[in-house]
Design brief:
Layout lengths: L2 H21 L2 E3 L7 H5 L3 E5 L3 E2 L1 E6 L2 E7 L1 E8 L2 H4 L4 E9 L14 E9 L8 H10 L10 E6 L8 E3 L7 E7 L9 E5 L1 H9 L6 E9 L6 E7 L2 E2 L1
Length: 236
């Protein structure tokens, strides 16, 4: 195959991957809109076009306040090589103002005050090699590309420990309920998970390490206001 043809196919893969991110309605927020402490930690915000963004406020000592008001958004950063190889991720969180219980397994009603996410490069769906090449190139932009995801949530009308496919990406995402709606407010709860073990458990094929970690709050579907605190996740 000629060099020009290879280059064309790589660029095609890049455009397909970029289009998939853009078509989903997501953009990178302005770094300057984040608190300086989060900017210094290489955190970025992913925002939904034509929706109000969730607010991420720095409260000191590694604590972020997450405020929603009919809004949605992700605070995320790329993991270091050492963090990607870690077998433990831990954090603490609490909710001050909860949202009404919702069925998080259904599209367009899955509001929750807090969630912590792991985003992986691996995709279980078949793709052409030039699309995979495009994904590799697009990583340089810092965008969190579509791949498999694990979402640990506070909220929903499910039992603690319930898990189910993501309503938006059922083949690629898994939702795990750690604290259902109605859990005690204003009370710190500690969480610790094994990213590698959870990937194997919920996807039952292959293995991978996470590339990005994210924090979110979501109340844009049914409307509402929520607030909570979460510590920046620690990897060991």
């Amino acid at each position: 195959m000629r060099v020009a043809s290879v280059l064309f196919l790589c660029l095609l893969g890049l455009s397909v991957t970029a289009a998939s991110v853009h078509a989903a309605g997501w953009d990178l927020g302005k770094r300057r809109d984040l608190p300086v402490e989060l900017q210094q930690g290489d955190w970025r915000v992913l925002i939904r076009r034509e929706r109000e963004p969730t607010r991420f406020l720095w409260r000191g000592d590694g604590v972020v306040e997450v405020e929603t008001d009919d809004s949605v958004g992700f605070l995320f950063r790329e993991l270091s090589g050492e963090e990607r190889a870690a077998r433990s991720m831990s954090w603490r969180w609490q909710v001050a103002r909860d949202l009404p219980p919702a069925d998080l397994s259904k599209r367009d009603v899955d509001d929750r005050p807090l969630a912590v996410h792991l985003w992986f490069d691996t995709t279980g769906l078949q793709s052409h090699w030039w699309t995979r090449a495009g994904r590799s190139i697009l990583r340089w932009t810092g965008l969190p590309l579509p791949g498999r995801t694990l979402t640990y949530v506070w909220g929903g009308n499910h039992d603690r420990g319930a898990s189910f496919p993501s309503p938006y990406r059922p083949e690629e995402g898994r939702v795990i309920v750690l604290r259902p709606a109605g859990s005690p407010l204003h009370t710190w709860q500690e969480e610790r998970i094994d990213p590698v073990a959870d990937y194997a458990k919920y996807f039952e094929s292959g293995s991978d390490t996470p590339r990005f970690v994210a924090i979110s709050g979501d109340s844009d579907n049914r409307g509402g206001v929520s607030s909570g605190l979460v510590t920046l996740p620690v990897f060991r």
